[in-house]
Design a protein that fits this description.
The chain is of the alpha+beta class. The protein contains 14 helices and 17 strands. It has four domains: 89 residues, Uridine Diphospho-n-acetylenolpyruvylglucosamine Reductase, domain 2, CATH 3.30.43.10; 119 residues, Uridine Diphospho-n-acetylenolpyruvylglucosamine Reductase, domain 3 (2-Layer Sandwich); 110 residues, Alpha-Beta Plaits; 87 residues, Alpha-Beta Plaits, CATH 3.30.70.2740. It is globular and about 70 Å long.
């Protein structure tokens, strides 16, 4: 493949200005000083295109095809693996102005939305209709629906409702050719040939730019009860979750586990009282919904009493107010606290069958300790679906040889157990080496063939995923 022509950000901004009436172009001056999101390199292209319609996005993509200019799609810039990093000579294609909730079909429990709508904004729009999304995550205030589609986001409710792939009924996108792919179906049952929109779900912008989607939604259950429980291990946490999932009245809304180092360090930082928790216990955060707040709390307390001894709980506390419940959730969702002590700490996002979690975590700690004195990790995550987030307690970036040892320690045994080296954050730049090492070679080859077919000039998000 021949090298791409070089345009300065100012050249690109001037060339794109006036291309389409629904296209706003932000040049180097307009982007200067803007917060780049999770990665400092997200805005390095110096020029951003913000379409307010699918047609404007298609016009931008067609121009870039004709002029061999690479495109880096952007949603809420909350991605954690460098999937939105850009460089001078490229154009950022942002969904910021594709921010409309187009239709709420309350009787169908579906919604049509543009890709730039944030998860939190969608939840707010659905609330008056007694509905909410079937997916939720801590970054709901910044994560966009298009970005969540492109990374196949998971989150808190995946154990019950599946990941983003399972929420999407229809999808519209601009392909690398500039053509508009439209499959805006609103029904679950479609048996009409290959479901090609699946290429764009989890594709991290490599196969096209998502502009609109149709999502499933569900009735909101506002009456909640939240508890923090001390557990000896993941196996016992899973037993608690299984018992509550089988409750005849309560509905399990969350099962989040935090291992001891994460809990102790975070609680100390926040001034959170853990005197009720037995030493060396992990914490299981449980949230349930019921017919009323009082009923949910009462039934939860009764259920915990019934299973306390059988599951060997090491202490527990049920939130007595919404403010206390929010403090419980802050322990879990304000998860970047360790970066203050360990800047750029190496972080990972893995998944495995839930029954394999205990063996994996104990093995991980042993493998890290074998690297050198003091090597340890913060571990927490969505225990009911086996998704763990891991942050190594060392400042980064690590030297290349040490980084390789840490990655070997983290990824050991995951593929063999039926798990994944990336559960919900994607591949981007950060996980490219892991993709090459742990994904089946035939699967890799097929993905590259599809990429070449759809994007022969390799202009869409180049250098990300395996491309």
């Amino acid at each position: 493949m021949s090298s791409l022509p070089t345009f300065s950000p100012l050249d690109l901004a001037q060339a794109l200005d006036g291309l389409h009436p629904d296209l706003r172009i932000l040049g180097p001056g307009a982007l200067a000083g803007r917060h780049p999101g999770e990665d400092a390199g997200n805005l390095d292209a110096g020029v951003m295109a913000q379409p307010a319609s699918t047609e404007a996005a298609a016009a931008l993509v067609s121009w870039c095809q004709d002029n061999r200019v690479a495109i880096v799609p952007h949603g809420g810039m909350s991605g954690l693996v460098g999937g939105g990093v850009s460089h001078a000579g490229q154009v950022i294609l942002s969904s910021a102005r594709l921010n409309r909730v187009l239709a709420i079909h309350a009787d169908e429990e579906t919604v049509e939305i543009e890709a730039g709508v944030t998860l939190e904004a969608l939840q707010a729009a659905l609330q008056p209709h007694g509905l909410t999304t079937s997916i939720d995550l801590g970054s709901r205030g910044s994560a966009t629906i298009g970005g969540m589609v492109s990374t196949n986001a998971g989150g808190i409710l995946a154990f019950r409702n599946g990941v983003m792939r399972h929420q999407i009924l229809g999808l519209e996108a601009v392909l690398p050719s500039g053509e508009i792919f439209s499959d805006m179906t609103r029904v679950v049952k479609v048996s009409a040939g290959p479901d090609l929109k699946q290429l764009l779900i989890g594709g991290e912008g490599a196969f096209g730019f998502v502009t609109r989607v149709v999502m499933k939604v569900e009735p909101i259950r506002p009456h909640r009860a939240v508890a923090l429980l001390g557990v000896p291990n993941a196996a016992r946490a899973l037993q608690v979750a299984a018992r509550l999932r089988g409750h005849p009245v309560l509905l399990l809304e969350a099962a989040e586990m935090m291992w001891p180092r994460y809990v102790r360090d975070h609680a100390a930082l926040k001034g959170f009282d853990l005197s009720w928790l037995e030493p060396d216990a992990a914490i299981l955060l449980m949230e349930v919904s019921g017919e009323s707040g009082e009923a949910a709390m009462t039934l939860l307390e009764e259920a915990l009493g019934d299973l306390w001894e059988a599951t060997e709980l090491k202490g527990g506390i049920v939130a007595q107010s919404s403010d206390q419940a929010r403090r419980f959730w802050d322990l879990r969702e304000d998860s970047g606290f360790y970066f203050a002590r360990y800047p750029h700490a190496p972080s990972f996002d893995v998944s495995m069958p839930p029954s394999a979690v205990d063996d994996y975590v104990s093995g991980l700690m042993a493998r890290l300790a074998a690297i050198g004195a003091g090597f340890d990790a913060y571990v927490y995550g969505h225990i009911a679906d086996g998704n763990l987030h891991i942050a190594v307690a060392e400042p980064g970036p690590l030297p290349s040889d040490l980084k390789a040892k840490v990655e070997t320690a983290v990824y050991a045994g995951i593929t063999g157990s039926g798990g994944s080296f990336s559960a919900e954050h994607g591949v981007g730049l950060e996980k490219r080496s892991a993709y090459l090492a742990h994904v089946d070679p035939v699967k890799q080859s097929l993905a590259r063939q599809i990429k070449t077919l759809l994007d022969p000039k390799h202009l869409f998000n180049p250098g990300k995923v395996p491309f």
